[in-house]
Amino acid sequence: MDAVSTSRGAGYACRNISTSSALQTRTHVSCDIKGDVAVVRFHTPNSKVNTLSKQLSAEFTEVMNEIWANEAVRSAVLISSKPGSFIAGADIDMIKACKTSQEVTQLSQEGQKMLEKIEQSPKPVVAAISGSCLGGGLEVAIACHYRVATKDRKTVLATPEVLLGLLPGAGGTQRLPKMVGLPAAFDMMLTGRNIRADRAKKMGLVDQLVDPLGPGLKSPEARTMEYLEEVAIGFARGLANRTMSSKRSKGLVQRLTDYAMALPFVRQQVYKTVESKVQKQTKGLYPAPLKIIEVVKTGLDQGRDAGYLTESQSFGELAVTKECKALMGLYHGQVHCKKNKFGAPQREVKTLAVLGAGLMGAGIAQVSLDKGLKTILKDTAQPGLDRGQQQIFKGLNSKVKKKSLTSFERDSILSNLTSQLDYRGFEKADMVIEAVFEDINIKHKVLKEVEAVIPAHCIFASNTSALPIGQIAAASKRPEKVIGMHYFSPVDKMQLLEIITTDKTSQDTAASAVAVGLKQGKIVIVVKDGPGFYTTRCLGPMLSEVVRVLQEGIEPKKIDAVSTAFGFPVGAATLIDEVGVDVATHVAEDLGKAFGERFGGGNIELFKLMVEKGFLGRKAGKGFYVYQEGVKNRNVNSGMDEILARFKLPANPDVCTDEDIQMRLVTRFVNEAAMCLQEGILSNPVEGDIGAVFGLGFPPCLGGPFRYADSYGAKQLVDKLRKYEAVYGSQFTPCQLLLDYANSPGKKFHQ
C-alpha cells in the first residue's frame, strides 16, 4: 500500500486537462488531474443514479481521448460523484428510441468499441466502485485493468439485462466468462442476481476492497468516497510504474476450473446442463437466456471477433422482441408505481399498529420493522401473538442466514416491535392496519374499538382482499381517514400493495398510505373501491373458469401444466391450494353476489364440499394436491376423485384443446381487467399491468393484461371471447372498452 502514502505526499496539483470550450459544456463527465493520474468523474445531472446515456458516453469518449493524448498523464481512475451509484446501467430510453434492430446493434457496437479502447489502453485504467455497478456500468468496470470497491451495503455488482429481455451488449458476454469462469458468468448473466462487494472479491470480479470510513469533518459517505479515490489513485500509479501487476494470482481450484473449461467437451457439458435448466425454468417463453448461452458459446468456440459480432447482433434482435417490450414496460411501470402521486403527506407515519398476528398481520409487521417503523402487533390471544412473533423472527433470521443482515441488526430491528393483547400505546399510533378475519361484523367491531383510543390524525387501514372499504368505513366516525391497504401473501416476498380509496378518503390519507407502502419497499397501485377492488376481481372469473375446466374432466396436473406453459409462474390448480380453498370460496361467494352471472362458470358447491372435507389447500396439507414437509413432487389428492365425479360436466371438444383452456382462463382475466379500467376502478393501464403481474402472477413475458391485449390484438381477443360466448354464454361477453379498441385498429392501451 506504499503507493498510496507517496501519492498523499505528492500534493494534489489539480490541473484541468485542456482549456478548450468543451470543458464549459460538459455536464455528465468531468476530469481533474492529480499528479500524473487523471480522475474521471461520472455525474448524470438531476438523477439519483448515473446511466450510460448518449450524452454521458459521448463526453466519456471525449475525456478519454484527451487523456490518451496528454503526455503528462500516465494512468486514469474512473469514479462517480454520486456515493450510491457508480453506473446503474445503460439508459433504457435510448434503446426504446431505436426503430429497428440494426439501430440497436449499432448502439451495442459503439459501446463495444469504446470499451475495447479502454481494455487496450497503454495507460492503466482503474475503476473505483461505490454503490450500484450494474449492466453497462459493470461492463465499463470489467473493461478496466483493475477494480477497487467499497465494502458497503450499497455496493452491488450485477448483469440484470436478462430481466429486461436483453443480454450484456458492450462486451460483457465475452469478458465476464474470462474473468470469473464460465459457471459463475452464466449464473450472473442468466439470473441477474446482485453480488455484494465481498463476494465479488472472492469471485475475482473485484481486485481490492476498501472499508467504509465513519464520520469525521465530513459525512461518512463523503469521507469514504475520498478514501476510495485515494486508494484507486495509488493503484493507478502503481500499475503505471509497474511496481504492481494487475494479474491476479488464482487459487488452485480456479486454475483447475479454467483448465477444465478450456477443454471443448467439458464446455459442451456445461452448455447442455445450463440449457436444459433454462428450458425448464422459462418453458422457452423468454428468448434472452438462450441467446446469452449461444453468444458466450460463440465467443469461446469461434474466437473473440465472432463473439463480439454475435453479441451485438443478438442484442439488436432481442431489443425488438415483444418479450423485451413487455419486460421494459414492466420496468417503466415499476418506476411509475414507486412515486407518490398524492405528494408528501402532512405528517410522516412513525408508529404503526397492526391488528391480528396471523400470517398477514405478522408479515405486514415484519416489512414495517425492517424499514425502521416502530410497530405494535396486537392480537386477541396469546398463542396467536406468539406464533406471529415467531414468524417475524424466522423471516428476519433467514436474512441473517443469507448474510444480508447481521444478528446485531436483526436484534435491533426486533427491538422496534411491541407485542400485546390490549390497546395500550395506540394513542401514539399514526396508522393502524387491521388484518383480522374477513367478516364485516368483526371489522366494524375493531374499527369502533380502535377509534376510541387513537389520536385524531391517525389513519385506519384495512387489509381486506374483497370486502368493499366503503362498507367497512360505514361504521367510522371519520371516514376520510379510512383506506384499504391490500397486501399479498407472503407479505415479505410479494412486492405488490394495492391501496383502495373510497369517495370519502382524503388526499392526505391516500398520500400517507402510499408513503408507508413505498417505505416498506412495495410497488404500489392505487385503485377505487368496489367488490374485489382490482386484483381479486380479475382473479375471480379466471378461478371460476378453472373450476369449470376441472368439472369438464381435465385433471389438476394438466391444468397446472397448461397454465404454466402459458407463462403463469404457478399452475392454476396449485394457485387455489396456495390461496386456500376456504378463502377462494368466501371471495367467490361475495363476488358472485356483487356481479351475478358474469362471475359464474364452475359450480361453487364443489369448493364448499372440499371445505367440508377439510381439503383447504396447502395450509391443511390437502387440497387438489397432498402436501408433505420436504416432498417436492406432490401427488394429486385421491380424495378429490369422488368430489370431481359428483360435479362432472360434459365437455365440448370444440373448446377443450390446450390452447382453448389457456385462452378461456386468460380471456376472462383480461376482459375483467378491461372492465375495471372502463369503470374507473383503475386509473390507467400501467397500474393494471403492474397489479396483475406483481400481485397475481400474470405472465411477465406478456407484460400484463393490457400490454397483452395490445400485442395479441384487441380484435383477436374479442373474436376468442365471442367463440366461447357461443358455447358458455354471458361470462365471455366482451366489455365495451375491448369492443371499442377492437373496432379501431390503431388504438392501443400503451401508445
How would you characterize this protein structure?
The protein is α/β, with parallel strands linked by helices and 751 residues long. Helices cover 51% and strands 12% of the residues. It is built from 32 helices and 21 strands. Strands 14-13-12-15-16-17-18-19 form an eight-stranded mixed beta sheet, sandwiched between helices. A hairpin with an 8-residue loop joins strand 20 (625-626) and strand 21 (635-636). The chain is globular and about 85 Å long. The protein starts with a helix and ends in an 8-residue tail after the last helix.
Characterize this entry briefly.
The protein is α/β, with parallel strands linked by helices. The chain contains 32 helices and 21 strands.
Tags for this entry?
single chain; 751 residues; alpha/beta; 8-stranded mixed β-sheet; 7-stranded mixed β-sheet; globular; disordered N terminus
How would you classify the quaternary structure? Answer: single chain
Count of β-strands: 21
Uncertain stretches of 5 or more adjacent residues: 1-23
Shape: globular
Query: With helices defined by DSSP (H or I, 4 residues minimum), what is the helix count?
Result: 32
Task: List the topology elements.
Layout: H1 2-9, E1 14-15, H2 22-25, E2 29-34, E3 37-42, H3 54-69, E4 75-80, E5 85-87, H4 92-96, H5 101-119, E6 125-129, E7 132-134, H6 136-143, E8 146-150, E9 156-158, H7 172-180, H8 182-191, E10 195-196, H9 197-203, E11 208-210, H10 220-240, H11 252-261, H12 264-282, H13 287-302, H14 304-319, H15 322-337, E12 351-355, H16 359-369, E13 374-378, H17 382-401, H18 407-414, E14 417-420, E15 431-434, H19 440-453, E16 459-462, H20 469-473, E17 482-487, E18 496-501, H21 507-519, E19 523-528, H22 535-551, H23 556-566, H24 572-579, H25 581-595, H26 604-612, E20 625-626, E21 635-636, H27 640-646, H28 658-678, H29 685-696, H30 705-712, H31 714-728, H32 736-743
Helix pairs in contact: 1-10, 5-14, 6-7, 7-8, 8-12, 12-13, 13-14, 15-29, 16-17, 22-25, 22-28, 23-28, 25-26, 28-30, 28-31, 31-32
